[in-house]
Amino acid sequence: MLVSIRRVLIGRPIATARAVQERLDKWMALPIFASDAVSSTAYATEEILIALLLAGTAALSASLPIALGIVFLLVVVTFSYQQTVLAYPSGGGAYLVAKENLGIRWATIAGAALLIGYVVTVSVSVAAGVAAITSAFAALRPYAVSLGVLFILLLMLANLRGLREAGFAFALPSYSFMLAMFLTIGWGLARLVIGGAPPAPAPTAASEVSVTGLVWVFFLLRAYASGCTALTGVEAISNGVQAFKPPEGPNAAITMRWMGAIMAAIFLGVTYLAHAYHILPDAGAGGHGAGETVISKIAETVWGGRGVPYYFVQGTTMLILILAANTSFAGFPRLAAILAQDRFLPRQFWNVGDRLVYSNGIVALAVLSSLLLVVFQGNVHGMLPFYAVGVFLSFTISQAGMVRRWHRLRTPGWRRSATINGVGMTTTFVVMAILAVTRFMPPDSNVLFHLPFTLPGLGDTVRSGAWLVVLAIAGLQLLFARINRHYVAVASQLTLIGYQPPPAPKNTVIVLVPSVNRGTVPALQYAKSLGQDTRALHIEMDPETTPRLLREWEAFSQGIPLLVLESPYRSLIDPLFRYLDEVQTEREHIVTVILPEFVPSRWWHVLLHNQSGWLLKLALLGRKDVIVTNMRYHLKE
Amino acid sequence: MLVSIRRVLIGRPIATARAVQERLDKWMALPIFASDAVSSTAYATEEILIALLLAGTAALSASLPIALGIVFLLVVVTFSYQQTVLAYPSGGGAYLVAKENLGIRWATIAGAALLIGYVVTVSVSVAAGVAAITSAFAALRPYAVSLGVLFILLLMLANLRGLREAGFAFALPSYSFMLAMFLTIGWGLARLVIGGAPPAPAPTAASEVSVTGLVWVFFLLRAYASGCTALTGVEAISNGVQAFKPPEGPNAAITMRWMGAIMAAIFLGVTYLAHAYHILPDAGAGGHGAGETVISKIAETVWGGRGVPYYFVQGTTMLILILAANTSFAGFPRLAAILAQDRFLPRQFWNVGDRLVYSNGIVALAVLSSLLLVVFQGNVHGMLPFYAVGVFLSFTISQAGMVRRWHRLRTPGWRRSATINGVGMTTTFVVMAILAVTRFMPPDSNVLFHLPFTLPGLGDTVRSGAWLVVLAIAGLQLLFARINRHYVAVASQLTLIGYQPPPAPKNTVIVLVPSVNRGTVPALQYAKSLGQDTRALHIEMDPETTPRLLREWEAFSQGIPLLVLESPYRSLIDPLFRYLDEVQTEREHIVTVILPEFVPSRWWHVLLHNQSGWLLKLALLGRKDVIVTNMRYHLKE
């Protein structure tokens, strides 16, 4: 029955030979791999505004130059990664690039950062997707976390079914979101041209920029760093080049450029509209006590209320965010499989499931991201700093690897390529530094930065800082090292190099005979047929039954000598082990213990028989050089 | 560690040879086997009063003649059972007597009634013991049920340790209770003689006897039946004759007479004092909303308040009641063992534990009685009708068996003996009939007896009637029958009578080889040494690794041919089963499947390896004529 439930949910097995057919063309790969990056535009603008709002509403006008700075970063990273994709057509994730060019140390650091990034991507995207729903339907807010977990489970199922079928379901919503955003931005701009900008709200004391000088610079940097969450997901394509139809590299590179252009346009458009229409962010949208998202406010303003266009924007935003999580469901299992192959993660992650997907990785990701979602109670703003540092760390390592590669290979045009990647590396490193400095601790802890003021209202919505990621990456390094050490130790103990098989050890066959019956006689025949030194052993639980046993033995012994062991304390295991000690005096002397047991025809009959067979087996499992053989006699009724 | 906790709680194992030493002399047997019967006096008087109170306070004066009637019954039953004990010195419980004289049908009915009786005895006694505490300390009433369960668990532990040690702890409290009751009764009578009887309360309208004629007879019978709970436990000695020192029969008979006399004295004394001092029962003593017990009220009145004597009475009452439950802890496992030996209960009840006790029976009793206690929320009055019918049913069957026996054997003096047992049988049958008629349904349900009035206040304290026991006994009959059928079927399938061992079947040895390494080579050597038709099987999960496997095979094959099976859907089980189908075309063709597996040195290492070995084993377990042999290779690190 379990098997048939599984079939309905996950589908029939797919043959190994069909593996190569499960590839994607550009138009199908774009919605799958770009959904993460593009969907970041749904919350990146909001992050900038929240960071700036701390300095007063007037500070919000800094959002436009900050957005331009982030788009510049996006262009640099896109160009930089395009080279990676072309250089590594079989998949050029940060882990592989670092491993080939910088050594395994940096590779595992990048790997750890990426794994964490994938998990957080799922949690953040799903939480933001739920926020899009709860912005439109406030009544659903109490169920935000449960809804999120439900979506994660649905994603898991979809991915366990296999990539192609999932891909098809993903194309439409991603393209619909792009359409919705372009229409909203276009109509928003058109209204500005036709009707002019709406008047700015009258400045109040509270709206004044309250900080100046270096603190103002710190605020700007912090807002910039917050907005950089827009870039999360850009690397997705480089990890998944293998999934593209051949020629993988060029196809992936072109898709990457499309994606960068679409992202930049939407991000700039949304940020401009938020500025032009004087949109203020609510604290902590996405959590249980969530307010309305910036996108929701923009859509409501541009389309003049909550009509069909508004719900179209909210719906497609929700869909692309939920589906953005799918990027991780493609990336995480793939990376985990590579790490497992390199002996840094349990090898189960390397197993390919029924449907040609890395099932264990998919399930692990679903469990971890659900956990994170529950712990953070779906608060997007709270989760974002949790992984920004990790993402930029992997960006930097990946590009540093590329720079090293060009210097090593010196292929034609390597200087130009090295320069591009060098600029990418430097830029992402600087951003990472800014992130680390400005978001290392949650602002409400104020441990590192004794800000000259308290943070009104927003403090409690930010639960953790980037320090957690640093700790997690360090922890994963330790775990990787221990797992690796174990696999290396196992391999060295199993290797055939320099192995001379020892002479075949002596084998004594012992049949345990609790009583003589039609079930034990076949066991005796079997033991006899093995042609070894064979003995039968009866452990005497009830001395009164022994004479009868001996009588029956004479008739059915099959020529095997019987030994009766006393057991004054009615224990099976103690006398047996003492006897085994006597037999196994030599090193490497094998004993085969044959346990006859009968198998009842109905499950509840098991309750009517002693379970001593199981206990014996369990006890014998721990003993070296003992081989346990079960002789099962199936009862008919 | 589990073993050492067990040692501390239950003690070191006791050798089988010590079995005969664990017998009891009369002075030790009396407190153990009489505690149940004697302790019934702690609630029997109360039951009579509660039943009479329904007809008004004036009806309470009927309690004395009713008590005399019950003592007459006690004398009859004691004499009757004394003959059983003498006739069956190796243990003459109702089950054995009925089996020998009336056939197995009546024996299993008696057995079922007795098993239920033992369970209810534990629940009732413990609940009444707790009521003695909560009468003295009202603050403990909310914890009544938890206290009861705790006492049951302590009893279980004491009994798992073995009878003798437990016996010693039981003698003192039982004798103390008898002392306390005799002192109280003596002092109570003395005060009546010296100071005269206290004046009766002025009669009110409510105190009038409100029923007349046949209904009044019904009330008297009902009160009589309720008081018969005093007799529960009288049969305990007959079930446990084996536990007496030789000569078992006479020793048990003498102990029985002592017990009867002590019970009669205490029961009459208590009932007389309750009458003379005008004690009224509270509704539902022993439950959560419990009031004070009659014994507590008598002690308080007689000793003039709550001084040391009062607490001595309550304390010893509590102790003997808690320890009365111990009778069942001696009887239930013994009866369950006999029923298991006769194949009516799972044979695990026949196992003798480490400490020479039937451990499984002890644990089963503790679990069942705790459950009952919790379901009834410790309400003594509610539980009593639940088993009175069962107890008297087993009395009747037992004595009927004795009558049959005398008529069969016709030993000297058989007519006198048959008459005694005949009177016993008739009397207990009549009482059972009265019980069945008056307490078949709970009075508050009023389904059978449309009483001409409602039951003020007491209705809700009575939850069930004797019908539940009838149902339970019938259910147990069914269970016994099914279990018996299974054991008989198994025995007939295993019997050696008329058995000709078939010719030794053909055996093919198949070694599963996932890869060639230092762990698989010993498995190949082992397979080779069995000297049978031996093959190696590789199920191809990843075709890319096959060439390497074939190269390594050449060097380490041990001369065994290797077969590579394709598995297009990456399943281990499907190709293996298909291959086994091919091999096992003949009937009775055995296949030995050797599974090499390596055993990690640390438990968490298991998480780092595929669990496919376990899955295979599980799948192969269900297949006929397949013998699974595990070749375990122990890793050192």
Secondary structure topology:
2 copies of one chain form a homodimer.
Chain A lengths: L1 H9 L15 H14 L1 H13 L9 H25 L6 H8 L2 H33 L7 H18 L1 H33 L17 H15 L8 H4 L8 H29 L17 H9 L5 H34 L17 H17 L4 H30 L4 H26 L27 H28 L12 E6 L7 H10 L3 E8 L5 H11 L5 E5 L6 H11 L6 E10 L12 H10 L4 E9 L3
Parallel strand pairs in A: 1-2, 1-4, 2-3, 4-5
Descriptive labels:
2 domains, 5-stranded parallel beta sheet, mainly alpha, Rossmann fold, Amino acid/polyamine transporter I, homodimer
Structure characterization notes:
Chain A is mainly α. Chain A has two domains: 23-196 and 211-447 and 457-488, Amino acid/polyamine transporter I (Up-down Bundle), CATH 1.20.1740.10; 507-634, HUPs (Rossmann fold). In chain A, 61% of the residues lie in helices and 6% in strands. Chain A has a five-stranded parallel β-sheet, sandwiched between helices. In chain A, helix 18 links the parallel strand 1 (507-512) and strand 2 (533-540). The model of chain A is unreliable at 284-289 and 443-463 (pLDDT under 50).
Describe the structure concisely.
Chain A is mainly α. Chain A has helices at residues 2-10, 26-39, 41-53, 63-87, 94-101, 104-136, 144-161, 163-195, 213-227, 236-239, 248-276, 294-302, 308-341, 359-375, 380-409, 414-439, 467-494, 520-529, 546-556, 573-583, 612-621, and strands at 507-512, 533-540, 562-566, 590-599, 626-634. The first copy, chain A, has two domains: 23-196 and 211-447 and 457-488, Amino acid/polyamine transporter I; 507-634, Rossmann fold, CATH 3.40.50.620.
